[in-house]
Amino acid sequence: MLSPRTLDRLHLLATFLNTAPGPHGGQVLEERLIYGTQIPDVVPAVHEGKSRVRVANAALQRAHALRGRVAALWTAADAGEDVTEPVNELLAEVGALALVETEEGLVYGPASQTSDAVERLTALAALTLADVVAEGEAARLRVCAGEDCGNVLVDASRNRSKRFCDEANCGNRLHVRSYRARQAEAAEAAEDDAPETTSGNSGEHTSGDKDKATKTSKKKKKKDKDKKKSKKKGKKKPKD
C-alpha cells in the first residue's frame, strides 16, 4: 500500500506531466510549462529542504526532457510493462541516498541536497517512482482512457478501477456521448421499423388519400344531383 506521502508526490508528478502540449480532455492544448520559474509552482515539493531552491540556466529545457522520460515510464506502466530499469536510471542520477527525517518519519532522500530545481525534481520523481515499483503498485500509474485525452492520472482507488482523469471530467463526457449514440441508434431503428405509408402497385392508400377520394366522390354525387334537378325544371310545362 502506498503511503500518503508517495501518493501526494505522484499527484504532483501527474500535474507536471500534464503540462505537456497535446490532447487534454477534448482540447488540444499548447505547452503550459513555458518558463523555468514555473517549476517550483507546478511541483511545490521541490521547495522542501534547508537550502533555497534555485532555477539554473537551461532549467526549462532540462525540465522538458525529464518530463518526457517520466511520461514514457508512466505510459509503459499503464501498458503493464516492467518499469524497473527506467526507474533505476533515474535513481542513478540522484546519487548517494541517506535516511532523511520527515513528518512521516525516516525516508530515503539524496545524501547531499542540491538547490537546483530540476535536480530536486529528478530526485523527487526517482524516489517516488522507486517506492511505487518496490510496493508492486506500478499499475496505479494510468493514462486517461478518454479517446481525446492524453492526461496521466494516479489510480488511488481500492480496486484499481479509476480510468478517467478528473481535470476534464472525461468519464462523464464519455457517458454523455454513449447515451447520445444509443438515442440515435434507437431513433434510426424506429424509423427503419415504421410501416410504409404508400404502395403504388398494391392499390393501397393512406388515410389522407382515402379522405381525399371520399370528398371527391361526394362532390361528384352532389354535382350529378344538381344536374338532375336542373333537367326536371327544364321539362316542366309553362302555365297557360
TrEMBL record:
<feature type="compositionally biased region" description="Basic residues">
    <location>
        <begin position="215"/>
        <end position="240"/>
    </location>
</feature>
<dbReference type="InterPro" id="IPR023286">
    <property type="entry name" value="ABATE_dom_sf"/>
</dbReference>
<dbReference type="Pfam" id="PF07336">
    <property type="entry name" value="ABATE"/>
</dbReference>
<feature type="compositionally biased region" description="Polar residues">
    <location>
        <begin position="196"/>
        <end position="205"/>
    </location>
</feature>
<dbReference type="InterPro" id="IPR010852">
    <property type="entry name" value="ABATE"/>
</dbReference>
<dbReference type="InterPro" id="IPR021005">
    <property type="entry name" value="Znf_CGNR"/>
</dbReference>
<feature type="domain" description="Zinc finger CGNR">
    <location>
        <begin position="140"/>
        <end position="183"/>
    </location>
</feature>
<feature type="region of interest" description="Disordered">
    <location>
        <begin position="182"/>
        <end position="240"/>
    </location>
</feature>
<dbReference type="Pfam" id="PF11706">
    <property type="entry name" value="zf-CGNR"/>
</dbReference>
<protein>
    <recommendedName>
        <fullName>Zinc finger CGNR domain-containing protein</fullName>
    </recommendedName>
</protein>
